[in-house]
Design goal:
The chain is built from three helices and no strands. It is an all-alpha fold. The radius of gyration is 13 Å and the shape is elongated.
């Protein structure tokens, strides 16, 4: 699995988890969703993704997200 797929799966999972926590635990969990969304937006504009950098550092292969 390449970096692009891992980042997309991770971001989607965190968003779904935070929405479930918002619904069942506390409305304040919505801020985690906002954080992930803001990070996705800035990664789209700047090309910088902290998770992608970490995955590259541990040797994961880069990919092309939407071939």
């Amino acid at each position: 699995m390449n970096i692009d797929r891992i980042v997309l799966i991770f971001a989607g999972s965190v968003i779904l988890l935070s929405l479930a926590l918002t619904h069942y635990h506390s409305p304040n969990w919505v801020w985690l969703t906002v954080f992930v969304a803001a990070n996705i937006l800035q990664a789209g504009f700047t090309g910088f993704c902290p998770l992608a950098k970490m995955l590259k550092a541990i040797g994961k292969q880069p990919g092309q997200a939407f071939k």
